[in-house]
Design brief:
This protein is α+β, with helices and mostly antiparallel strands and 593 residues long. It contains 20 helices and 17 strands. Bound molecules: iron/sulfur cluster.
Length: 593
């Protein structure tokens, strides 16, 4: 039996997911006159085809759309009708910017919520490393690059481009000068003569949400908000002017001339790549809906943007989470205090410093909150000492005379000046979180965490090109991540609406890289050869078979990867080894561009 794999079902998607709502999002980016534009619905349909098929380039996408009847039908193009040029997709994405793609992501989450797929009582967070589309060879000393740019543009003002107002590139290799400021507004099908959407948007006065506030309060709030670092507003860009102590990041000294926003990240094999962190906030409901995503340079740790993401999730979808679960990286005092003050239980592991010392640990001392003193195992008191205390830690000191005469001193300290203890100013919150650690609810949440967010990353990496961004610069990779997360949510939504079994994305099946790519320095052209076993296993699992084999056939226009699943027929028997099992029932063929 020969079966051609249906990669995704265009009719089912068309029937179950109406994209008419996107017209409202992009209205302000179009002018009344000008040349006829590409329908925004077509743009988003093409993005969905790209996601579902695991296609990594707009050129490849348009070739795929031209050859595939079902895709033409889905887009609403007749057989002889010319499809949009691939470069138009780049221009449209540039015109829309991150904001429109975020609205699209939000709209998908809205529909998931309306379909009852969002529970909202528990939230889980994690981040994964994603390789940037840039080579390590492009890393140069930052001072040299900045000096070069300063010399090049000494008579011009080089400004950081506003997200969405910068010319992108349809294929990653076409970025000419990523470090250079914003080029002109792109022309083409979506250009609006003499009018720019960002100007229109900025000319509108901001909407007053709390008219009852006093002017002074409003100004105070505006000033406070202006001073804080809004990770979502800044698209994950860190404030590099902030330096903690003597610690300096590698990215303070080095920059990639290909993708200046990507930073060096270590990989499992001990090497390093340029890359980003993709952060997900995931709902604890059965559908595992992604509620928020953000891409930051890889030197931004998970705990830094998490509060901004959480608050946005909470207010955007009016959720009242009871608990937040994350790994050790999220267990900072700042995060714990913020969560607990909002009555959200912070289920995060905390480091156990007591295990790292041979002397009495903090647990061996009793804290008397009323008197603000610690009682040591020998019954002596440790009093708060302002000298030596910092903004975040209070120092407690025992008298030197008492300690030097103490029979337990060998187990407590080697200092002749008496034992010292430090206590975090928000220690009561940390103690509350430590108390959670003994509860069954916490243990259950931690077990759930290990299987909740990681599989979404694995799904993205195995099937939807998440191992490596195809675009460059923060705003573009954020666009890419938002579209991917929207697609992942959409799969759950369409399944709920009767889409049926989720098919395999054919392009991703053939082009997915090895799961251990970080350890594996083989060039990308060997990817198909390296992934045959995984493709075969995926086919076997999806068809419930216990046997399979694969071989490749090269044609004039395409490379056919043939996978036999089940057991072989007589016709195929000659390709099998002596020890292989026999009967065949299913013969699958993937077309690889
Ligand atoms: S050394 Fe000092 S702080 Fe430690 S047990 Fe003895 S008296 Fe207490």
């Amino acid at each position: 039996m020969i079966t051609s794999i249906a990669t995704w079902s265009a009719p089912s998607t068309e029937r179950t997911f109406d994209l008419a709502f996107v017209r409202g999002f992009v209205q302000e980016t179009y002018a009344g006159g000008g040349r006829p534009s590409i329908d925004p619905i077509v743009f988003f349909k093409l993005q969905l085809v790209m996601f579902f098929e695991g296609i990594r380039s707009e050129r490849q996408l348009m070739r795929h759309a031209a050859d595939r009847l079902s895709v033409r039908w889905y887009l609403g193009y007749d057989l002889g009708e010319p499809l949009p040029d691939h470069s138009s997709l780049t221009r449209i994405r540039t015109r829309y910017g991150v904001e429109v793609l975020r609205r699209f992501f939000d709209a998908v989450v809205d529909q998931c919520q309306q379909a009852g797929l969002v529970w909202g009582k528990e939230l889980y967070s994690d981040a994964t490393k994603v390789q940037a589309n840039a080579s390590l060879d492009s890393v140069k000393p930052r001072f040299a690059v900045e000096a070069h740019l300063a010399a090049l543009f000494s008579s011009e003002t080089v400004e950081k481009p506003a997200p969405g107002l910068e010319v992108g590139h349809s294929d990653s290799a076409s970025a000419d000068h990523p470090l250079i400021g914003p080029p002109d507004m792109p022309s083409g099908e979506v250009s609006s003569p003499g009018e720019q959407p960002a100007e229109k948007a900025s000319s509108l006065p901001p909407r007053q949400l709390h008219p009852s506030l006093e002017n002074t309060t409003r100004e105070e709030l505006a000033r406070t908000n202006g001073e804080r670092h809004d990770w979502i507003e800044r698209l994950g860009e860190p404030d590099r002017a902030v330096i903690r102590g003597t610690y300096r990041r590698m990215s303070d000294f080095q920059v990639s001339t290909t993708d200046p926003d990507a930073t060096l990240m270590s990989t499992k094999g001990g090497g390093s790549h340029l890359g980003y962190h993709t952060h997900y906030i995931v709902d604890g409901g059965k559908a595992r809906i992604i509620l928020s995503t953000l891409v930051t340079p890889s030197d931004v740790m998970e705990n830094q943007p998490v509060l901004d993401l959480l608050w946005r999730v909470r207010f955007r979808w009016k959720l009242r989470p009871r608990q937040f679960t994350g790994d050790t990286t999220y267990g900072t005092a700042e995060n714990i205090v913020a969560l607990e003050e909002q009555h959200i239980r912070a289920y995060v592991p905390l480091p156990d410093f007591d295990q790292r010392t041979d002397f009495f640990g903090q647990r061996d001392f009793q804290y008397d909150a009323q008197r603000d003193v610690y009682l040591c195992p020998n019954g002596a008191e440790l009093h708060h000492s302002p000298s030596g205390s910092t903004e975040h830690y209070k120092l407690y000191w025992a008298k030197a005379k008492t300690c030097n005469a103490c029979p337990l001193k060998a187990q407590c300290t080697t200092s002749s000046r008496g034992r010292r203890l430090s206590r975090h100013v928000d220690e009561e919150y940390l103690e509350r979180v430590r108390a959670y650690h003994t509860t069954e609810r916490y243990k259950k949440a931690m077990r759930k965490r290990s299987v909740w967010v990681e599989p979404l990353f694995a799904e993205g990496k195995d099937w939807h090109g998440m191992r490596r961004f195809r675009l460059r610069q923060l705003w573009r990779v954020n666009c890419e991540a938002l579209m991917r997360a929207a697609g992942q949510n959409l799969k759950r939504l369409l399944k709920k609406r009767g889409w049926g079994r989720r098919p395999l994305p054919a392009e991703a099946v053939c082009a997915a890289s090895h799961p251990d790519w970080e350890d594996d320095e083989q060039p990308m052209e060997h990817a198909a050869r390296r992934t045959w076993a995984r493709n075969l296993i995926a086919s076997m699992v999806s068809l419930g078979s216990i046997w399979g084999m694969r071989h490749a056939e090269t044609g004039t226009f395409a490379h056919a990867v043939v996978v036999h699943v089940g057991a072989p027929s007589c016709a195929d028997a000659h390709t099998l080894t002596e020890t292989s099992p026999r009967p065949t029932d299913i013969y699958l063929s993937y077309l690889l561009d």
